[in-house]
Structures
1.
Amino acid sequence: MREEKPVRVQKAIADRGLASRREAEKWIEEGRVTVNGNPVTLGDRCLPGRDLIEVDGRKLPRREPPKVVIAMNKPRGFVCTNDDPHAQKTVFDLLPPELRPQRLFCVGRLDKESEGLLLLTNDGSLQQQLAHPSYNVMKKYQVELDKPLKEGDIRKLIRGIDWEGERLSIEKVRPLRSRGAENWKSLEVILHHGKKREIRRLFYAFGYDVKRLKRVQIGQYRLKGIPRGHIRSLGRREIQQLFEADPGS
C-alpha cells in the first residue's frame, strides 16, 4: 500500500474543493482551521487521509472529490465570484443543475464586461499551477479599442508601467486583420500573467478605452465549438494543452 505523504494544510483544503489555496491560507491566518483539534499556522503539514481537518468546526472529508475541470464561454454581464451575495448574475448560474452543488472556483478571472474562455475547477493544485508565474501559462485575448493604436505606443505597452504598486505590461500586440492604420483598433494581445483588469488598466494609462475584451486561448487550448454561455468538460489531454506553449505566439 502506498504510504501517504504529508502536505501543507492549505493544499489539503484546496484539494477537497472547499476553497482556493489562497483562501485556505487566509482561513489559517484567521485561526479558523484545526488539525486533530489543534490550531495550525501557515507551513504546517498534515496527512489528509488520516488527520481530522476542521474549518470553523466543520469536518473535511478525508477523501478528495473527483476532479472537475470545465471550460466556459463566458458572456458579458456575468461576475466571476461565488462569494458575493450581492452579485446578480454569476458564471455559476450558467452551470447545469448537476454541477451547481459542487464547490468550483474560477481560474484566471474575467471582469464583468469581459468575455470568452474561462476555466472552473475544484482542483486546487491545478488552479495554483495555472495562476503561478513560474508555469509561464500563455493567455491570448482579442481587444477592441475606441481608436487605432499608435505605432509609438506599442513599445510602451510592452515595456509597461507601474500602477498602484503593480507592474503592468503585455508581451505581444498585433492587429487581428491585415495592415492599415484603422485595423489597429482590433488587436490580438498576448501575456503570460494576468493581474486584475490588467489589459484595461494598461491601455487606459496610454489614453485608450477598451470597448471589448475576449479571452480566446490559454496555452494551446482554444475557445472553439463552445457556444456563448455554455461549458465543456476537459479531459487529460486538453488539460495538458493549457500548459503548452503556442508556437504561433
2.
Amino acid sequence: MTREHDNKEEEKRNFFRVDDVIPVVANPVDSRIREEVQKKTLCSKAFSVEDSTTPQVGDTGGNGYDNPEYRKLHDMMIEVRSKLDFVINHFLLEKEGLTTNEKKLVNISASGIRFTITNPVKVNDIMEIKLLLPTYPPVAVLAYGEVKRVKKIDDDQYEIALEYLNMGEPVKNEIIQYTLCHQRETIKKFRETQMNE
C-alpha cells in the first residue's frame, strides 16, 4: 500500500461517525453520470434550506427609513420574502424527494454513510445520495458515493456502506459540523439522564 492511501485511510478514521434518522434518497447512477463522477466533473453540493442573507424584521439595513410608514412597509416586505423563501425551499426539497417519509436510520461521517435500501446493488456501484441534515437552518446535500459493502438483511432489505466521491471541503465541513453538533447533543442528553438517576 502507498503512503497516500494510508494517509487517506487514517483521515477517514479521524472523522466522527454518528447514528441518526434523516431524510435520505439514494439511486444508482447511469453510465454517463458514472463517467462524469469518475472524471471528477460532477461534485457534491450543499445548500442551506433557509436564506441566511435575509435581513431580520425591523432591520432597515442602514437605508435611513426613519418614517414609521416606510419602516412598516419594509418589515412587511421582509416577512413576505421570508415566507416565499420557505415555500420555494419546501418545493425544492419535495422535488428531490426529501420531504416524504424517506427517513432512514443512517451512520454518517464526513467520509461516508451507511443505511438500508430495498434495491440490490453491487460493490463498486456509484450512487447519487440526497440527504437533509437536521441542522439549523437545515442543509440539503447532494453527493456521490461508491458502494464499499453490501449486506443482505432480508428478502427486500440491503444495508449498504458508501464512501463519498468528489466531496469538496465546503460540503465536508457541513457534514463535520452536523456530526459534531449531534455528538455534543448526545453527550448532553446522556449527562442529563445520569444526573436525573
